[in-house]
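Sample intake sheet
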Amino acid sequence: MEPRFDLMANPLGAKIAKRIYNVALAITDSSLPRSTQDLVMLRASQINGCGFCVDYHTKDATAAGEDAVRLHLVAAWRESTVFTDAERAALALTEEGTRIADAHPGVSDETWAKAREHYDDDQIAALLSLIAMINANNRLNVMIHNPGGAYQPGQFADMAN
């Protein structure tokens, strides 16, 4: 599969991608645990069928020391014993926030309450923003047919600022 469009080769596309990356840096620098961020990005990317993002976030999580078993079980997190209650709350919020377009009723009060049990205001702001941003990134990459497989951890580090 070849991408339909090289966003980074287009001046406006590159400018937008850089802004998106800088939003991601603000989230990365938040107090939301990095492992939770990785799990959330991977799960939303799986739901949205974004091969590029699944590749990207699996490799970055691995490079950051995430356990392979946990990465393999993200798609079946409800039937797995390797996630904390806080991670489960974040994954539930991710799924409900991602599936809005699938006629899902949105984020349930129960899921919201569970997330608020585990995350303070700064962390919930980061988590909500992360879910919104990964969904935007997934959609962008799916629309242009950006394939998975070639990502190298840290390859976008020079995009900052």
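Comment: The mean pLDDT is 94. DSSP finds seven helices and no strands in the chain.
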